[in-house]
Amino acid sequence: MHWTQMLIPTMREVPKDAEATSHQLMIRAGMIRKLSSGVYSYLPLGFRVLQKVAAIIRDEMNKAGAEEILMPAIQPLDLWKKSGRYSVLKDILIEANTRGNQKIVFGPTHEEVVTELLTGYVKSYQDLPKILFQIQTKFRDEARPRFGVIRSKEFLMKDAYSFDTDFESLDKNYQKMYQAYCKIFSRCGLDYISVSADPGAMGGDVSHEFMVKIPFGEDRVVTCEGVEGAWNREVASGVSPEIEKDESLYQMEVFDTPGISTIEQLQKKYKINAQSLVKTLIYVADGQVVACLLRGDHELAENKLKKILKAKEVHLADEATIKKVTGAPVGFAGPIGLKDIKIVADISVQHMSNFVVGANEADKHLKNVNLERDFKVARFDDIRYVEEGDLHPESGRPLKMEPALEIGHVFKLGTKYSSSLDLTFLDPKGDRKHVVMGCYGIGVNRIIAAAIEQNHDEKGICWPLHIAPFDVIIVTTNESHEESKKVANELYAGLQDAGIDVLYDDRQDRAGVKFNDAELIGFPIQVVVGERNLKNNEIEIKIRKSLKINKLSISSAVEHITQWVKNDQY
Amino acid sequence: MHWTQMLIPTMREVPKDAEATSHQLMIRAGMIRKLSSGVYSYLPLGFRVLQKVAAIIRDEMNKAGAEEILMPAIQPLDLWKKSGRYSVLKDILIEANTRGNQKIVFGPTHEEVVTELLTGYVKSYQDLPKILFQIQTKFRDEARPRFGVIRSKEFLMKDAYSFDTDFESLDKNYQKMYQAYCKIFSRCGLDYISVSADPGAMGGDVSHEFMVKIPFGEDRVVTCEGVEGAWNREVASGVSPEIEKDESLYQMEVFDTPGISTIEQLQKKYKINAQSLVKTLIYVADGQVVACLLRGDHELAENKLKKILKAKEVHLADEATIKKVTGAPVGFAGPIGLKDIKIVADISVQHMSNFVVGANEADKHLKNVNLERDFKVARFDDIRYVEEGDLHPESGRPLKMEPALEIGHVFKLGTKYSSSLDLTFLDPKGDRKHVVMGCYGIGVNRIIAAAIEQNHDEKGICWPLHIAPFDVIIVTTNESHEESKKVANELYAGLQDAGIDVLYDDRQDRAGVKFNDAELIGFPIQVVVGERNLKNNEIEIKIRKSLKINKLSISSAVEHITQWVKNDQY
Q1: pTM
Q2: Between chains, do A99 and B130 touch, taking CB under 8 Å as contact?
Q3: Cys staple from B185: which of B58, B190, B283, B440, with CB 3.0 to 4.6 Å?
Q4: What is the assigned CATH class of domain A470-567?
Q5: What does the alpha-carbon distance between residue A328 and residue A254 come to, in Å, rounded to a whole number?
Q6: Distance from CA of B283 to the nearest CA of A (A)
Q7: How high is the ipTM of this complex?
């Protein structure tokens, strides 16, 4: 391609509304354009990257034995009610009515549709196992679309679904997909890690997230030096470094705290350390009220609570419920005097003594409260998110927490969807059983943003070779110089014939402008055709990542560059 | 690929709810599955065809200098109001509300979005000309989704948009796209024609439709033997064969027609020929009432009426308006006695005498009515659709009308969108001008249906080579015969290495079942490995289209087949 024939609207200024580096650079490199909040068009360069990423994904999916299909975005709302997910995901669903008052949703994911699809075709165990995938547009009414294509309302997803007769067979497909994901992310030039994660709304028991550590990551990845594995903060376990316990238990006392209902206020006004406080959160788990105790500086992990209570759904109790069970307004709940309510406490509470709690009475707290002596806990368990400074439960070494972005997620769904949507098969004995499923997603657009976050410098993007919009850019220092143009065109033709993806910047602009654009966009290899070097029958090669410059003879340039690109070594 | 590893759910029964042959065969060949009315999933074989068609389109678009982009499905409703198309297309728009009460539509087409996109980048005449295209999913709330993927609510479209400084330059891009379309449809194996068409809701003056003649076509293509060109029925002109005029004009008479308000009823009850009737249709054109006269058996063409009246919008008057202007209930309107209303008559009315019209009075008609003597017509013009039996206006030969399906449409839009959405450029003199646009659409899914409609027999589909799900299928007559399997695997590997798209039917089924499936799906070349032929080191080749069978030596088979496929000659 020639630059002047393409739409490549680069800009020098940093766009004001773009926080993330990748967002800024995608706009500045002329890759995307915002249409409205969380909705983007891909311009030619951006589309080329999107296609290259999709091609890598497609290739690895095919190699792993997955078959490509294409399911519709329009999905009957009823299907979501049937699977039970309408109530869970309705906040992000984009719903519409079509003629005849048909209620539809624009698919945020396709577990329901693919399960329904298979009901038409799976009869017996002989029809299994099977893996299907698609690269298709998803729609989600995000509460806070941001960071450009990282969190948007419309995005391209590769979603794959596996169907097996049993969990053993699911394990095999899960492994296949897991391995394929590793290959995909490697080929896209990403420095990624896989972490144990919570299946969340997707359902099922086991899941792994593929994460890249980037400053704007909305997730937190937990690791520990010398310990294998990594965890999403949601599922990580940690131990608080022990705080010295008071040797004696003091007398419990009521003290007045007029209008003071938050931990921040207690800390500020009464100089009470959050680590000496126990907060009492009133939760409702499947309709049952539970009091959850946590150290003042800890945060409850609802997914953990759900798991230990074996509840389908948990949420904070509303004001009325809190008043009813504690007898006090919100902000003064405490464990003492609660009747007929199960008390669950985080493990870290076990090591505390002489702590402060709410008094179950307006404007009052209790101090020097102690376990066993003053109240009883039904169960101690891990119900909180780990914090910076926590220790690994086994090694005792400190946990490290870093911001990360999820780019892929694999789930063992089990029979969640096959039960609710009735996808069954006959086993060899003729017994009807539910199909065992897995699902596997990759955010195609996010790979692009992640690659930029991990591969850029102050001049712009440094594309990993396999997903660069072009492998090579040819720049003449003076496009009016006939000999330069001739050599540039010959190199262009030669590289094209060799199967190299090459762009020729044929603009009549100053060399500096063209160099800056080439570095902003970040083509891996820059070929510079300049008048001076031509006198020695040479051209210059600039490697984007290292910014190193080498000279090559014109006659050997095509062969050298082709070798570099084919071997990804330059 | 091996058959047993793929999801290919063929069926022998003809699905009950599928009218069109292509719809029946796509279901039976396991290519698509219906999710809900007008909404389909593509299964692996269907998806392969879709991808091949898309690849051909992409290739020809690139060759024609169009650049690929990807615009979002989510479009702000405001943009549609600004372009003025919300009121025109609102019936087919799928609307939704997202958070913060943002009103969106799911794009049925992208003129608005692409025009807005270019406003960010087009500054001067030097930024033009430009052609952008995408292959993207469109959403339309069709009143009657039917014929499978022919008319569906969600479909894949290739839409391209050209941007020029003037109409002369637009003509060049229009020609480029027109030629590219011819190449695309030829490569897809379609027998197509291009017809002059009405731009309709898209706007602009000139447009051509690409049509394939098929029994279930919802359009009518008009041609005339010995006359160059073809027309959509909407824009075709025809002359009614002359009906002998009565020599004398009879006395006009009122006659009672109690409860008879339709032409069918008049014909049936009073034996009046529709050709002796003149029907009076009360229309509203941009708020102005017009009476339109047509011969009883003719049908008014609103697009023609709109054009001759230079109206933005025309529609049939409602009951109240009809009562008000005619003084009679609906069904009794006539030209005599209408006050202050312009009367427009179709040319064919000019040749009529002693005809019947409504009396502008309930339950009464008039007979022996004559032009000039009894009422005056403001204008005679062509305001009707041509009918079977009409004659070509110049050659005088009869017009031929055939059902056809639109698979592509090219439009010269002019400045319709650049004016309403303010897309301008500075010309060399520094004057600000509106960009001149064109748009070019192809229904990707429809190409598949059209190819099947034109290429099938009683056994199933006969795919044109370039869009077949696989070029070649290998079938063993006995999959338990080790030698057969060995040869089949060798041929499979050999063809794959030669770059041939090959499927190996490795099912343990009877040969008959496998042959039937191969013919139902319609792979162009069938390779049959049978025990008997192996004794002579031979295999059989069956050509799907001709059903001809040839023998080839095993050693030469790969080379022969490869040559056939590469040259598309077999």
Answers
A1: 0.91
A2: no
A3: B190
A4: alpha beta
A5: 15
A6: 27
A7: 0.91
